[in-house]
Amino acid sequence: PRNKYPEQTVEKILDAATILFLQKGYQHTTYRTLLTKHTYLKEPYIIIQTKEEIAFRVGDRLGAKMLPIFANIRD
Question: Which of 37, 38, 54, 66 is the most buried (most CB within 10 A)?
C-alpha cells in the first residue's frame, strides 16, 4: 500500500535519527535501524534513500532550531 502521509513518515524518521545519532553516533547507526526499528516502515527507501541524506536533514532541522537563538545572542 502507498504511504498516505509521507511528510509525517519523514518526520518520524528524522526524530528517530536525531535520537540515535546522539545515543550511538553516526558511525554506529545503520540505515536499516534508522528506518525500520524506530519507524516500523517496510519500504522507507522510497522516501529517503541514504543515511547521508537523513544526516543532512537532521542537521538542517537542528540548524533551523538554533537560528533564532543565535539571532537573539547577536542582537
Answer: 54
Whose cell is 500500500? That residue is: 1
Residue ranges in the chain modelled with pLDDT below 70 = 1-3, 37-46
pLDDT in tens, 31-48: 888 877 655 555 555 677
Does the CA dihedral 63-17-53-48 come out positive or negative? negative
* Opening angle at CA 47, ends 66 and 7, nearest 5: 55
**CA–CA separation, 58 and 47 (whole Å):** 15
Contact 32, 17 (CB under 8 A): no
Using DSSP, state whether 68 is helix, strand or coil: helix
Average pLDDT, the chain: 82
